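Researcher: Predict the fold of GntR family transcriptional regulator.
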Amino acid sequence: MIIKLSNASDKPIYEQITEQMKQAILSGSLLPGDALPSIRMLAKELKISVMTTKRAYSDLERDGFIETVAGKGSFVAERNQDFLREALIRQIEEHLVKSIQLAKTANMAKKELLELFTLLLEEE
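Model: Structure tokens for GntR family transcriptional regulator follow.
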């Protein structure tokens, strides 16, 4: 798994790690039971503080994405498909809200926005 950090991002480093790991889990790149790098190893690879990676792992565990077993490490948690689907729908909603805000800023009519959405769907 490759994590790319950006100093230009407005998000803290731990949040960038958390989001990228969640995305890898939701997309199926990381599967239930997959072992994650240790907190120290990830910190060393990314050249960041151990406290930063610890915060990311804590947030992932709190949100149910990973499980930590004492003496063994951290692993992708078993997740049911309904939960994964809900998480993806939540992400879609967030993106749509941002798109609608941009459309309003551009003074785009509802009809134009719906036509654009339909066009983009049909390209798939």
